[in-house]
Amino acid sequence: MSFQNPVFIPGPTNIPESLRKACDMPTIDHRSPLFGQILHPAREGVRKVLKSDSAEIFIFPSTGTGGWETALTNTLSAGDTVLAARNGMFSHRWIDMCQRHGLKVDIVETAWGEGLPADRYAEILAADTAHEIRAVLATHNETATGVKSDIAAVRRALDAAGHPAMLFVDGVSSIASMDFRFDEWGVDVAVTGSQKGFMLPAGLAIVGFSRKAMDATRTGTLPRTFFDVHDMAKGYASNAYPYTPAVGLLNGLNQACDLLLREGLENVFARHHRIAEGVRAAVRAWGLDLCAVDPSVYSDTVSAIRTPEGFNATDIVTHAAEKYGVAFGVGLGEVAGKVFRIGHLGSLTDVMALSGIATAEMCMADLGLDIKLGSGVAAAQDYYRGHPAEAHKDAA
User: Fold this and answer.
1) Is residue 274 a contact partner of residue 387, using CB atoms and an 8 Å limit?
2) 246, CA 20 to 30 Å: which among 205, 223, 233, 362?
3) Using CA of residue 169, residue 172, residue 173, residue 179, what is the dihedral sign?
4) pLDDT digits (tens, 9 = 90+) for 200-228
5) Residue 339 and residue 334: Cα distance in Å, rounded?
6) Which residues bind substrate (predicted)?
7) Are 339 and 306 in contact (CB under 8 A)?
């Protein structure tokens, strides 16, 4: 693998030089007012990225998985029921975590490649007249399959049923890359991490809690210590943490939010969509299909590309690393060996994306697939030339 080449995995993503330098800072006293000048702007920046006016932002030294655990353990009690669809590896892992914590999970099995079945959620919620379901879990962007889901539709299902369940959203591979509307969608807990849309190294679990979720923390009885939001809030009030924070990463997060907001969130989302459309144009030119079943669920941060029956898609990833020093993502779970993934999120440009498309072409041709060199690159070039970046009104 070459440090000179960008990565095309769906996280960790490429790190802009300015953010790498922001993380590389001298030691400071993390219980001093100076630390507060890093911490509080970072939290406020995240709140803006979530498009929220009131979310309580908590940032733990962890990853998105720790964010999942934060959501569950602070708001729920053993034996509580949650509703979740399993449509990919990461929704599966969140379900597994719920079960390990003694929660009852009403699982809606969904084909890998499809989005969350909001219509089925609506039926289940309407039938739950006793309101036993305490939380609905929703994976906004399923990283294993390249599928996005309609979180607004899940909120509509809750509202139509008049159901009081909380809405927990995994936005690990969507937040800061794809449009996310915490307040408008009535999200109660949003979970993400530092290593994807925020373009930082892994190491921070970033969560937003609504007022309703904060109220639930007073009744939830699942054990929590490291991820206790009340301990964290008490520390924040004194410009501190209840333990040692990842100061450099927090400084990087502060700068990352500044970069995103200066670019303009709508411009960030448009850039991701444009790059993703170029990749999808290449996939069509290759004569291959995406794992995502139709354009309504195409992810703008990762494309999972199906290879022909009998071909091991993992060979493309291995070959790219060994011969060309480039990283793509392997298939996971039910699609292992059936897809390879091109991550197109974070610090990425049209030109960088073209290098990844060209490398994928070379690998497939090397491995004997019927791929014409230059076909996908040309299709992506045509798209990028015809769809230049446009500045949106919210850009700074």
Assistant:
1) yes
2) 223
3) positive
4) 999 999 999 999 999 999 999 999 999 99
5) 10
6) 341
7) yes
Helix (H) or strand (E) holding 395, with range, is none
Please say whether the beta carbons of 350 and 382 come within 8 A: no
Reference 144, options 396, 359, 333; nearest CA is 333
Kindly report the number of other CB atoms within 10 A of residue 217's CB atom. 18
Round the CA-based radius of gyration of the chain to a whole number and report it.
21
Mean of all residue pLDDT scores within the chain: 96
pLDDT bracket for residue 347 (50, 70, 90): very high
CATH 3.90.1150.10 intervals, the chain:
264-386
Number of C-beta neighbours around residue 74 at 10 A: 24
pTM of the model: 0.96
Q: Which residue has the tokens 């029956």?
A: 309
Closest C-alpha among 68, 31, 56 to residue 247: 31
Domain with CATH 3.40.640.10 in the chain: 17-262
Q: Which fold has domain 17-262?
A: Aspartate Aminotransferase; domain 2 (3.40.640)
Asked: is 264-386 a CATH 3.90.1150.10 domain? The reply is yes
Consult the annotation and say whether 341 binds a ligand.
Answer: yes
In whole angstroms, give the CA distance from residue 311 to residue 368: 10
Among the listed residues 96, 161, 153, the one whose alpha carbon sits nearest the alpha carbon of residue 131: 161
Residue 138 tokens, joined: 């929703």
Give me the half-sphere count of Cα atoms (radius 13 Å) on the Cβ side of residue 188.
25
Q: What pLDDT, on a 0 to 100 scale, did the predictor assign at position 1?
A: 65
User: What is the 8-class DSSP label of residue 88?
Assistant: S
Does residue 321 contact residue 327 with C-beta atoms inside 8 Å? yes
